[in-house]
């Protein structure tokens, strides 16, 4: 699960941010058709977007999604607007334009395709890694490839966090639901990430771990923390007009925020990953039982090797004397 911070003017108006799902074993035939990854591939990022030629979801390879380039050694340490525009246009002309993914599809969102490439130039991203199985990945691939991929985006009830909820329910059926409180029934990225964290606490086998993917400096001001709906209303200038309309509404939102809306998601010092160590997001995780088995196997191998060495030392001279 990727929790992506809000940024810019739109992020000030709607500070909820964005949710996407990164799957290390799911790759793309095209950005709208999935397959299992081959050895050496890093997987893809899947999310719901508005303004991409009428498609509901699009999948992008990890490195282009984060950095607009195809290889990690091409990622700059610092960028400006012209560099980001050049990298995005280069990738767009090669991979998106032939498929029409740089068209809005009648949406009001201009240049929606820029959401697909260079996310790390726009904002800081937190990755919440958890264990899944290849069989679950195959089920998701079959499901998304079989359904009609037509635009369904709606800010209030079919947004990016709702899509993340749908994906999580493929892996953990019927466990992730829309909530009335907090957020007035609207699914938000912060709320959905909190549900994943709570679920992982009850199921240690998921081995949840949090990573930070820093924002590449230079393109725009640094992004800011995600907020849910109640938090957005009571901690920003929105509180003033709402209070003037009805102080009871403001009071209800404030109570909602205090009781259910204060999520503690990010550890103080998450492991930081960048272009040079993205493989950390894909490293297999071992549960306690698997770790014990691995240790026993290593001890057994070492004991066998030691015994073989002793045996060779004992029979070595006899063989030497017998050799003409």
The N- and C-terminal alpha carbons lie at a distance of 69 Å
Q: What is the H-and-E element order? A: EHEEEEEHHHEHHHEHHHEH
Give me the side-by-side strand order of the main sheet.
6-5-2-1-7-8-9
Uncertain parts: 287-305, 317-324
C-alpha Rg, in Å? Answer: 24 Å
Multimeric state of these chains? single chain
Shape: globular
What is the residue-averaged pLDDT? 83
> What's the number of extended β-strand segments?
9
Number of helices, counting only DSSP H or I runs of 4 residues or more: 11
* Number of individual domains: 3
Measured by DSSP, the beta-strand proportion falls in 5-15%
Sheet having the most strands: 7 strands, mixed
- The helical percent reads 40-55%
Helix/strand/pairing class, anyone?
alpha+beta
Give a short summary of the structure.
The chain is an alpha+beta fold. It has helices spanning 8-13, 62-67, 81-96, 119-122, 134-146, 160-171, 189-202, 229-234, 239-245, 247-260, 288-322, and strands at residues 2-4, 18-23, 26-30, 33-36, 44-48, 57-61, 125-129, 209-213, 271-272.
Key phrases:
two-stranded antiparallel ribbon; 41% helix; 11 helices; 324 residues; globular; alpha+beta; 3 domains
Task: Outline the structure in words.
- With 324 residues, the chain is α+β, with helices and mostly antiparallel strands.
- It has three domains: 2-224 and 263-284, no CATH class; 229-262, no CATH class; 286-316.
- Helices cover 41% and strands 12% of the residues.
- The protein is built from eleven helices and nine strands.
- The protein has helices spanning 8-13, 62-67, 81-96, 119-122, 134-146, 160-171, 189-202, 229-234, 239-245, 247-260, 288-322; strands at 2-4, 18-23, 26-30, 33-36, 44-48, 57-61, 125-129, 209-213, 271-272.
- The strands form two sheets. It has a seven-stranded mixed sheet.
- Strand 3 and strand 4 (33-36) form a beta hairpin.
- It is globular, with a radius of gyration of 24 Å.
- The termini are far apart.
- The relative contact order is 0.15.
